[in-house]
Amino acid sequence: MMHVIPASVGSSLPVAAVGPSRPSPGHERLNPVDGAVMVWVPGTAEACPNGRFRMGSTQDEIDRVWEATGWADWRDRTTVEQPAHEVELDGFWLYKHEVTVGQYARFLAATGYVRPAAELWVALKDRVDLPMLFVAWDDAAAYCRWAEAVLPTEAQWEYASRGPEERLFPWGNDWDRTLSNCADYHAGQDLSDAAAVKAWWDTVPQTAEAWVEHLRPVGSFAEGVSWCGTLDMAGNVWEWCGDWFDGAFYGRSEARDRNPECRTRQSHDRVLRGGSWMFDATRCRGANRNWYNPDERLDFGIRPAVSRPGP
User: Fold this and answer.
1) In CATH, what number is assigned to the domain containing residue 120?
2) Interhelix angle for 101-111 vs 137-146, to 10°?
3) In a domain, 257, yes or no
4) Measured on CA atoms in the order 228, 229, 230, 234, is the torsion positive or negative?
5) Is 104 a domain residue?
6) How does DSSP classify residue 283?
7) What local confidence, expressed as pLDDT, does residue 94 receive?
8) Cα dihedral: 88, 89, 90, 96 (round 10)
9) Would residue 248 count as lying in a domain?
10) Residues ≥6 apart with Cβ < 8 Å to 3
11) In the predicted model, is pLDDT for residue 309 greater than 70?
12) Residue 311 placed within a domain
């Protein structure tokens, strides 16, 4: 059930005090457009002891974590998480949950936006508390425009998941498959290599109905909460970010700008974060980067952000 990660992974530094004029981490308010609960993610100047957040993974961290867990098959995936680098971020609001099917239905009704393919929508439309999936990047961006929000940057997303302590997972540094809706959770065992993942995946029917049945209502894993109060940042559905994907971006000077974002198209893909119900522990890590053609509608969903400050 649980992989124990070496205690030296991640810092244990205290969170700096937040001034009285700012909300505290996890302070909630509603988005009046879609009724979604948003939580406040304080800027790095307020939350991080040195005013910066360490984004990405060091090679030493990867070596120790992979040795402790036996995830050798997936080591090559970590190269795009390097080099680790420090970033400064302003505070922002982030949806506590992934956008639900019910919220997406209200968006469709309010805007007349093209609804998903019939066979997909039939499988989803009555499951109002599930996270919306089968969402292309343009769909996600359109929803955010309607909700007067934006897709979070990759840096915002990772910071909200990992926090000042640079956690491996939203809840801490130890993997526990019972804290997220992931492949390991459905398999009932830790899937530590590619063969184990494939063996489980071969048991899953490849239909829209089966995919929907593997989802869980948003907020179902309350003990998997992140430092700032967000839920389901590991598993359930992948979450689109605003950035174009660039595997070399972390080594570029722009990655160290204040509020960094990859705005220049370096590939045909957009960034996704957080893993989904069909992926293993390595893909549910806060530092893991995924990318896909923005036109694809697979196990992809939405978690909007609002950059305007204030309670």
Assistant:
1) 3.90.1580.10
2) 70
3) yes
4) positive
5) yes
6) G
7) 98
8) -150
9) yes
10) 68, 69, 174, 175, 190, 281
11) no
12) no
